[in-house]
Design a protein that fits this description.
Largest sheet: 6 strands, antiparallel
Number of strands: 6
Oligomer: single chain
Shape: elongated
Radius of gyration: 16 Å
Distance between the termini: 27 Å
Amino acid sequence: MREIAPLWIRWPYARVRREREIVRGEVRYFVSQLEYNVAATPAGGTESDWRDVARFDHNADPDRGHDIRMDGLHLDVYKDGEKYKVRPDSHQCHRRQR
């Protein structure tokens, strides 16, 4: 069960998306992502073309993402719709022993 629904914060050109899921006290999934509307205009047109800019994420299910307890927390940076760079841990989180 999702503890909170996705939250969208909108500005004319950018928005922040965040979601998380907690099951029996364990964070199973989270994402915090900055997105940019490349179709936005100063006049506030109705077109939208949202692109990822940067994202932190975690998924305990290895088939659906990466587990920060194993891989560490990192920032994915996007450019022109493609993953451009991965910024490694700036703060170490506790990693599970394999």
